[in-house]
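batch_manifest entry 22 of 60
target: Exopolysaccharide biosynthesis protein
source organism: human gut metagenome
requested by: lab member K.T.
priority: normal
notes from requester: please return tokens only, no post-processing; we will run our own comparison against the previous entry in this batch. if the run fails, retry once and flag.
--- input ---
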Amino acid sequence: DYYGANSSGYVIRNGVVYRDTVRENSNNGDLAIYKDGSFKIIYEDQISAEQLVNDGVINLLAFGPALVENGE
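--- output ---
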């Protein structure tokens, strides 16, 4: 997770939004981890940090690019 190396980009830990600015390279996906244990790749320029938490995201990891997306 590269959140500490960047001055922008969502930071969500344990369901709390600590930073809600879209990261500069939003082409790289973030790994969203949901309450039910499921994972999903999201793109910060397509959804707000608040909406992610409302949708059940408890942790968000910024790394990218996605290696597997939609099962492929």
